[in-house]
């Protein structure tokens, strides 16, 4: 069991390090830099992720799965408008990682990853919007696709203006979704 626990810790450390390096977007993601940042040897990294694409695919998929799972958690803990706003904060963090992943992977890998996203995000948004519609705090005439389209601005915000602009735009988005 110790070996499996060590392997799980190594995998998690590798993914955390990769997320930080991808979010930095200062250049090409090097697996040697990921291993160093994670505090593991290159052999350990390659056992978990034989290629850069494997690592980026796991990073992207993990981020989107966490984002989807968080919708249910947030709805259970907060009123729907607040849950939605908190989820949008996570979406913005995810978008930053996603932009780094897009810059780092080949088009064929990105096409495969991108195909998974709309259905997963739609499920999370359905959870959030349904809760808001049920208590009449969010508009009932908006569907998940509307919200995905409205949130595309995240892909176009420059790094230099991210911290100032994104919170304000998310506030505008949530205000527009209130009933």
From TrEMBL:
Residues 30-49 bind DNA. One of its GO terms (molecular function) is DNA-binding transcription factor activity. InterPro entries: Homeodomain-like_sf, HTH-type_TetR-like_transc_reg, HTH_TetR, Tet_transcr_reg_TetR-rel_C_sf, TetR_SbtR-like_C. The keyword Nucleotide-binding does not apply. Pfam families: TetR_C_43, TetR_N. PROSITE patterns: HTH_TETR_2. This is Helix-turn-helix transcriptional regulator. SUPFAM superfamilies: Homeodomain-like (SSF46689), Tetracyclin repressor-like, C-terminal domain (SSF48498). The keyword Methyltransferase does not apply. Transmembrane segments: none annotated. Keywords: DNA-binding, Transcription, Transcription regulation. Residues 8-67 form the HTH tetR-type domain.
């Amino acid at each position: 069991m110790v070996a499996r626990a060590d392997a799980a810790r190594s995998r998690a450390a590798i993914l955390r390090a990769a997320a930080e390096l991808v979010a930095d977007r200062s250049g090409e993601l090097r697996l040697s830099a990921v291993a160093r940042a994670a505090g593991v040897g290159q052999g350990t990294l390659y056992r978990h992720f034989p290629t850069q694409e494997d690592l980026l695919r796991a990073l992207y998929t993990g981020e989107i799965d966490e984002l989807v799972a968080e919708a249910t958690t947030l709805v259970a803990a907060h009123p729907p408008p607040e849950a939605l706003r908190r989820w949008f904060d996570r979406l913005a963090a995810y978008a930053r990682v996603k932009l780094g992943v897009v810059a780092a992977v080949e088009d064929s890998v990105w096409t495969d990853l991108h195909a998974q996203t709309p259905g997963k995000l739609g499920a999370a948004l359905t959870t959030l919007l349904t809760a808001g519609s049920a208590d009449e705090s969010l508009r009932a005439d908006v569907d998940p696709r509307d919200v995905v389209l409205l949130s595309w601005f995240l892909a176009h915000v420059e790094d230099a203006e991210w911290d100032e602009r994104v919170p304000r735009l998310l506030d505008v988005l949530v205000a527009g979704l209130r009933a």
